Amino acid sequence: MSSFGLSHLDALESEAVHIFREVAGEFERPVILFSGGKDSIVMLYLALKAFAPAPVPFSLLHVDTGHNFPEVLDYRDRVVTAHGLRLHVASVQDYIDRGVLRERADGTRNPLQTLPLTEKIQSERFDAVFGGGRRDEEKARAKERVFSLRDEFSQWDPRRQRPELWNLYNGRHAPGEHVRVFPLSNWTELDVWQYIAREGIELPEIYYAHHREVFARGGMWLTAGEWGGPRAGETVEKRQVRYRTVGDMSCTGAVDSDADTIEKVIAEIAASRLTERGATRADDKLSEAAMEDRKREGYF
Amino acid sequence: MSTTIDTLRFATAGSVDDGKSTLVGRLLHDSKSVLADQLEAVEHASRNRGQDAPDLALLTDGLRAEREQGITIDVAYRYFATPRRRFILADTPGHVQYTRNMVTGASTAELAIILVDARNGVVEQTRRHAAVAGLLRVPHVVLAVNKMDLVGYEEQVFERIVEDFAGHAAELGLPGFTPIPVSALVGDNVVERSAHMDWYLGPSLLEFLEEVPVGVEAADAPARFPVQYVIRDGEARYCAGQLVSGALRVGDRVTVHPSGETSQITGIDVLGSAQDVAYAPQSISVRLADQRDVSRGDMITAGVAVPALTREVRAAVCHLADRPLRVGDRVLVRHTTRTVKAIVQDLGGATELTANDLGRIVLRTAEPLAVDDYGVSRRTGAFIVIDPADGATLTAGMVEL
């Protein structure tokens, strides 16, 4: 289709805004998954643009693993206050305290997020759930629709996806079912950063190079903390690092970096020979189909 | 780093074992779009399967069942860039449901690569792919004749296939196509020009993808603005939506469909900045002179070329679902931002359409739709048919006026 000289960022922005407005027009109770990571921050920014000067007609949902970076929680709370948003929290720690979920041997809580997320969607009767997933992230995500139907157990069945044609998104669903919506489907990691730079969007500080106490595990730099690191034999050292993704502290690794400005971050990513998840996510290294399996069960 | 670089959306289609996954893998690999950890994962998986060389097809087969069965099931989207252009590739599999998958991929594509095996030439599925590209009005088609290494890089083999395909293309109403001889396995003419085929003087596949003009829609295309949502701010009402064709200016006289009421644009906002003019495909909001009762599903148009307001929609269709579509079925039709009830009145003489059928339809709708001919405007000429019982997407339609 014609682009009349629209830059690729303008085209991606327009497409994402179109998706937000489609959901506002077709659903009763949409919610934005908000982790405080850069993709969810860009999502919220786009939603604010899509409905200005009126407020965003959605609330936010944070699935809290209990292993949060303090800088990210602080950021979350400031954003919620600044825009007068309503924040829902689904707490993994709650489920562990109640004995519904059990801590895993490896200490990571990423796979434990699925149940609190699913039950919150059911109890709040959310019918559209925005996620910041991008198709360039991972092979199973490359097959994801913009509107992705989930059953009442939040399960994703790749063989039963609806064909998605033109920009005609089909959001019809039965009571109890919901639709996961991915407005950043066609964005790459580099697009997200270029957009953050262009729009001057503030991010949590941990995305930029800083000095931090870390230790090595599984080929990544993890932050020492109450969540369970370091173990015996793992030594803590101070390094200059930054985070390329933000998730559960126990399985999100930092990368060695001196990129302390957005321009340096963009230059670093453009030259990187590793994917974002390959460099920073321990949980995706488990198997060839780790993400697919989590998605089937209702993960983000 | 330029941010004004343009984007080509393209789709690939091939029959079983034409080597399409290998071609896509080669395109990604040789354009240096595959990162070290991805390649490492492919090498690891290839070794597990007892293969010596990395199997580039594994780069694109993302689902467990695909790797287990060695086939591609679903449309996958890939993103890569060269210094000259960004690419969004819809990789459409040639196995199960290949017509449905190609229709999906082609619906947003500006170029389609149709792949044939040089040893087999044009087969039934190739004709099907060409028909879909024609039906979906994909502006550019590349015929990639693959596995040239297995036919001794013979020019005559290539020429015979091109001639054969040209005959079908003319019959199917394909405006034209660009043939390229390649070997995805070896890498001939995918990114680098081949040293084995000095008789071929054209560009490599990637060179062609980098050069083909995009944004072919005419600048004077009719203005079409389907209203998605009405933003209320105090007394003010803003009609929000994506301009899907043409341009709108402050001061333009506009018509709201289906009511037919007219008004004037008094303000245009392009995501936070007031503008005098907006172009497709910008997402915008507009204010009208009189606070008319405009709502989601209405379409605002400007200029003399108005859409056809009709309750009898005639269209070419591709049936996508496993359950058939029958004459007399009660369905929902989703056109732009409007969803209306409809009855299937005629299926081009057939009693039913089954999965992957291409055909014709006449729908009687409960309320009028403002439609354009799909050949004139893809976004306002396209619709989907939905099963009201469970919301399944049944059929893709392209309006014929």
Domain module tally of chain B? 3
- Helix tally of chain B equals 8
What Rg of chain A is obtained from the alpha carbons, in whole angstroms? Answer: 19 Å
Low-confidence stretches of chain B: none
* Major sheet characteristics of chain B: 8 strands, antiparallel
Average residue-wise pLDDT of chain B: 89
What is the string of helix and strand elements of chain A? Answer: HEHEHEHHEEEHEEEEHHH
Give the total of beta strands of chain A.
10
Share of helix of chain B, binned: 10-25%
The helix tally of chain A amounts to: 9
The total strand number of chain B stands at 24
Indicate how many domains the architecture of chain A comprises. 2
CATH superfamily of the largest domain in chain A: HUPs
Q: Quick summary of this structure?
A:
The complex is a heterodimer of chains A (300) and B (401). Chain A is α/β, with parallel strands linked by helices. Chain A has helices at 8-26, 38-51, 70-82, 92-97, 114-123, 189-199, 262-271, 276-280, 290-296, and strands at 30-33, 59-64, 87-91, 128-130, 147-150, 178-181, 210-217, 220-223, 237-243, 254-256.
Question: Describe it for me?
Answer:
The complex is a heterodimer of chains A (300) and B (401). Chain A is an alpha/beta fold and 300 residues long. Chain A folds into 2 domains: 8-190 and 290-296, HUPs (Rossmann fold, 3-Layer(aba) Sandwich), CATH 3.40.50.620; 205-284, no CATH class. Chain A contains 9 helices and 10 strands. Chain A has helices spanning 8-26, 38-51, 70-82, 92-97, 114-123, 189-199, 262-271, 276-280, 290-296, and strands at residues 30-33, 59-64, 87-91, 128-130, 147-150, 178-181, 210-217, 220-223, 237-243, 254-256. In chain A, the strands form 2 sheets. A 6-stranded mixed β-sheet of chain A has the order 3-2-1-4-6-5, sandwiched between helices. In chain A, strand 1 (30-33), helix 2 (38-51) and strand 2 (59-64) form a beta-alpha-beta unit. In chain A, helix 1 (8-26) packs across helix 2 (38-51). By secondary structure, chain B is of the alpha+beta class. Chain B folds into 3 domains: 7-211, Rossmann fold (3-Layer(aba) Sandwich); 223-302, Beta Barrel (Elongation Factor Tu (Ef-tu), domain 3); 308-399, Elongation Factor Tu (Ef-tu), domain 3, CATH 2.40.30.10. Helix content of chain B is 20%, strand content 36%. In chain B, strands 7, 8, 9, 11, 12, 13, 15 and 16 form an 8-stranded antiparallel β-sheet that branches. A 6-stranded mixed β-sheet of chain B has the order 2-3-1-4-5-6, sandwiched between helices. A 6-stranded antiparallel barrel of chain B has the order 17-22-20-19-23-24. The longest helix of chain B is centred in the middle third of the chain and has 17 residues, at 155-171. The model of chain B has no long low-confidence stretch (mean pLDDT 89). At the A-B interface, helix 1 and helix 2 of A face helix 2, helix 3, strand 2, helix 4 and strand 8 of B.
